[in-house]
Amino acid sequence: MIIEKAERILENHELCNNCLGRCFAKLGKGKNSERGEAIRNVLNMEREANKQSPIKEPQTCELCGNIFKKRDYFAQKCYDKALKLGLEFDSFLIGSSFPKDILEKERAIVEEFELDYAEPINREFNREVGKALELLFQKPVNKKNPDVIFIIEPYTEEIKIQSKPIYIYGRYRKLVRGIPQTPFKGYKESVASIICRPFAEAFRGKAVFHGAGREDIDVRMLGSGRPFIVEIKNPIKRKAVLEDLAKEINSSEKVEVFGLRFVDYKTMEEILTQNHRKEYEAVVYVEDGVEEKDLDKIVKTLTNATIHQRTPRRVLRRRSDLTRVRKVYKVDGKVIDGKHIKLRIFCDGGLYIKELISGDMGRTTPSVSEIIGKRAICEALDVINVEVIENGAKSPHNKEKNKG
User: Fold this and answer.
1) Residues tagged in the binding site annotation
2) What is the rounded CA–CA span in Å between residue 396 and residue 387?
3) Within a domain: residue 402?
4) What is the pLDDT of residue 400?
5) Which residue from 22, 43, 157, 191 has the least number of CB within 10 angstroms?
6) pLDDT tens for each residue of 199-248
7) What is the pLDDT of residue 352?
8) CATH number at residue 208
9) Which residues are known binding-site members for substrate?
10) What is the DSSP pairing of strand 220-233 with strand 376-386?
11) For 37-91, what is each residue's pLDDT tens digit?
12) pTM (2 d.p.)
């Protein structure tokens, strides 16, 4: 049956041994070129016995145009391109983009001769170039999670490289006020730009900053720092001494990073999609004066309080006007002088602290102003801790060492 079908195919189409063998690729083991050659040999023996002329392998295959004879050439092109770029990787995969007319022609042959055991042309091409490249690189093909994918356009000979993103976790402390977390009109630099610059240079890719929440421009991020992920897109380099990058960032004296380590995409998602509980320290100004009894009332009322907060007026242009329900878990404080108190507030993420203090004209309740019956405003605010749950446990609050 196979020989009869092969004869009918070859009587109608001039195919090379690769393309002939691929028609029966799922039968037996071995290369398609060897399978095709074996089928052609048996067929020609039968034809000779029947005094028919042999069907020789054509000078040019009408389907692939002899593209498989350029296997080593494409492997060398991939190798040279990687070498020129200085590309770092431990594993790779070959992909290819074949013209639509070739794919349609192959599909027509498969349908015409009902080839249930055929293999697509791109699959054989990718596998064969991959085997040649394994020898050149001395690195393995990885079909599930390669560091790098070489995408070959066989007939234009263009080669594109896709490099798997790198994710680096860390925590940052913003030591000064007046810097936005991400680029913002009117500001020359941001936390993101200060952090991303050394990463982009070291990995030679595009560095994208992802913060676990954000603080206002006039708010410092102190204490145990805010978790963040730097995503390096299409990196050329995959290794760097993270301690050195941390030193470079920390030399800015505006932003400090620590606890740097490589993580995977799943960890990034886990960290960035959490609703983080946070701890703040606020200096509160009370125009009509404040006493210990006011502070006691604030601490007693806000500890374990449920807060109903409509979107603050100052962000209404950017946020929907919704009422959020958040919880304050713990409040401590001290009187600084007759008009100032310092509050330490541990609460759900997403609670606007400035409005928790002022009340925002009744849009946040209860509030410090409402509790003491006096106008209170937040003069200075610092974020002290952002709690992160990783692998089911709270991440440490102390300053972690950089790893890698």
Assistant:
1) 280, 352
2) 9
3) no
4) 52
5) 157
6) 999 999 999 999 998 899 999 999 989 999 999 999 999 999 999 999 99
7) 96
8) 3.30.70.2510
9) 280, 352
10) parallel
11) 999 999 999 999 999 999 999 999 999 999 999 999 999 999 999 999 999 999 9
12) 0.84
Same domain, yes or no: 52 and 154: yes
Lowest mean pLDDT among 154-168, 315-329, 346-360, 378-392: 378-392
Q: What is the 3-state secondary structure (H, E, C) of 168-203?
A: EEEEEEECCCCCCCCCCCCCCCCHHHHHHHHHHHHH
Q: What is the residue range of 206's domain?
A: 166-273
The pairing of strands 92-96 and 148-153 is: parallel
Contact indicator for 21, 10 with CB cutoff of 8 Å: no
Regarding whether 151 and 23 lie in a shared domain, the answer is yes
339 within domain boundaries: yes
SS3 325: strand
Angle, CA 141 vertex, CA 137 and CA 144 arms, to 5°? 145
Kindly give the pairing relationship between strand 340-347 and strand 364-365: unpaired
How large is the average pLDDT for residues 253-268? Answer: 95
Question: Looking at the structure, do residues 368 and 248 belong to the same domain, yes or no?
Answer: no
Active site residues: 216
Q: Are residues 257 and 282 in the same domain?
A: no
- Residues 231 and 256 grouped into a single domain: yes
DSSP string, 335-350: EEETTEEEEEEEE-TT
- C-alpha–C-alpha distance, residues 274 and 330, integer Å: 20
CB atoms within 10 A of CB 246: 20
C-alpha atoms less than 13 angstroms from C-alpha of 272 in its C-beta half-sphere: 18
Q: Which of 273, 307, 341 is the endpoint of a domain?
A: 273
Q: How many domains does the chain have?
A: 3
Flag whether 398 is in a domain.
Answer: no
Distances in whole angstroms, Cα of residue 271 to Cα of each of 171, 190, 198, 294, 302: 12, 21, 23, 38, 28
- 235 plus 335 within the same structural domain: no
10 plus 153 within the same structural domain: yes
